[in-house]
Amino acid sequence: MDRRDVLRLSAAAGAASALTLRGVSFAHAEEHAEKSGGGEESRTVRGHLPNGAPDFVHLPVEVPRGVRELAVSYSYDRPAVPSGTPGNALDIGIFDERGTAAGGRGFRGWSGGFRTEFAISAERATPGYLAGPVRPGTWHVVLGPYTVAPQGMEYEVTVTLRYGEQGRPLRPAYPPERARGRGRAWYRGDCHLHTVHSDGRRTPAEVAAAARAAGLDFIATTEHNTTSGHGAWEGLWGEDLLILCGEEVTTRNGHYLALGVDPGTFVDWRYRARDDAYERYVRRIHRAGGLVVPAHPNCPFVGCQWKFGYAGADAVEVWNGPWTADDEPALAAWDNMLLESCRREGGEGRRRWIPAMGNSDAHREPQVVGLPQTVVHAEDLSRAAVLEGIRAGRSWLAESSGIGLELSATGPRGEHAGIGERLRVAPDAAVAVRLEVSGVPDGTVRLLTDQGEMLSERLPASGSGTVLWHTTASLAAYVRAEVRHPVQGGGAGLPGPMAAMTNPLWLEAH
Question: Residue 332 and residue 386: Cα distance in Å, rounded?
C-alpha cells in the first residue's frame, strides 16, 4: 500500500476497519458516451496489501452518466507459504453510489473469492450481484483480504464502463409464502444450501430437482453475504416445494443463517465478535420475520468457528453435512446448553432453550441435498408455520427421508408430550417414554437426559424397532434420542455416525 494511494483508514459498517484507496475516474467519459453512443473504457489499479491489512479495502470508482454496464475483474498473487500458514485469499464485491455504510443500503453484490469477474446492468447481473440501473456517482469496489501471506499480497483490479442507454430493469419474482402441504404434519427441509449465486456449483434448478429427489418439502436459499438468490427461483417452487429466503452471513468470527426472512432482506456481515454490531442484525432478522441460526459452530476453517455466543439465536446448526468429528463437539455444546436452560431464574420458570437443526450446506456434486435434513411439525406448509415449528423445537434431524422416527412421553393420567413439548406431571409420577425408529439397519438407539445416556439398545437388521423406557420428572428434566450407525473399523467405545436425532421433550415436575 503506497501512502500516496491511501486516502483514509476508517470503520466500515460501524465496526470492522476499512482502508479507502485513491479513487478511479474516467476522464471525459461523459463526452465519450455522448459522441459514440456506445463503446467502453477500462482502468486498472495495482497495489500491495501487507500481512495484517484491514478487513476491507474500498476502491472508489467515479461513474459518469451514460453508463449501460459496469464490469470488474481482479486477480492476486498466491506465493508459497510455510506449512500450516494461511496463504492469500481475497474476496470481492461492490456498493453503488448510495455508499458503503452499515446496513448495506448501497449493496449491489458480493462473490467472495468464488469469481474473478462480474458485471452489473439494469436488466441483468452476474449471479451474486443485483441487477439495476448504473447510476452516476461514487461506487466502491470492496476487497476483502480474508487471509494474507506473510510476504503480503499483490493485487490488480480492472474496472470497465460500457456506455449506452440503460436497459429495462426486471422485477424479481420471489417465492410464495405457502405451498399446498398436508395440513398439520411433519415436513422435511434443508435450510442451508448454496448455488451459483455464491460459491456453489449447482444452479437453482438443479438444487430444486435434488430437493424433490430427496423427498424434501421445503428448502432455503442461503447464499454467502448476498440476496441475489432470492429472486432466482421463478418456476421452481410448486405445491410440493416451499422455498424460503435467507442468507448465510459470513463474518470473520463465524457464520450464521438469516433464515426465512422477508424477500430482499440484506444482512450485513462486515463486523467481528469484538464489535458492537451483531445484536443490531439479530434484531433486523427478527423484524424481517426470520430466525437467527449459528451455522457449523465448530468448523475448523479460518473464520468459521462461532464466536458471538447464543444470545438472540433461535436455533443452532449442530449437524452440518455428512456426520464428522466437527459435529460431535457441536452436539456436546448444545446438550450443555439444554442443561443450562433447566436452571430456574428468580422463580420465573425455565430459561428459553435453543433447538438443534441439521442442514446439508451442499454446494456441488457429490454433496447430497437433504443430508441431513430437519423434520418439522408444522400447522401447514407455509413460511410462518415452518419457522414457528423450528423456533419451538418441534423437530428432529435425519440423514435422509428414508428414516422415520417418533419420540413421545406419557404420564399416569394419559398426559402426553412429543418432541419440543412439555409434559407436566407430579415429581415422582411414572412417565413412559416411547421411541419408534425405522430405516437404520443394525443402528444403536440412545436415550439421553440431563444426566447423560440412560438407555442404549441395538436395532435389528431390518432397521425398525420400538424402545420403551420409564422415568420420572424428578430424575429427568428432558429426554432426547439419538440413532447411530454401527462403528466402522473398530473404535470400540465410540459412538457411530449419526443417522437421526431429536430435539428434547421436557418433563416438568409440578
Answer: 26
Check whether the bond before 504 is cis (ω within 30° of 0): no
283 bridge partner residues: none
CB-based contact 253:272 (threshold 8 Å):
yes
- pLDDT value of residue 217: 98
Whole-angstrom distance, CA of residue 407 vs CA of residue 148: 49
The pLDDT value recorded for residue 30 is: 60
Listed as ranges, residues in the chain with pLDDT below 70 are 1-16, 28-37, 344-351, 489-493
Q: How many CB atoms are closer than 10 A to CB 147? A: 16
Q: What is the pLDDT of residue 344?
A: 55
* 345 CB-near residues (< 8 Å, 6+ apart): 351
CA gap 295, 221 in Å, rounded:
14
Q: Is the pTM of this model over 0.85?
A: yes
Length of the chain: 510
Q: Which domains does the chain have, with CATH numbers?
A: 3-163 (2.60.120.380), 172-397 (3.20.20.140), 402-510 (2.60.40)
Residue 321, sorted as left (phi over 0), alpha (psi -120 to 50) or beta, turns out to be: left
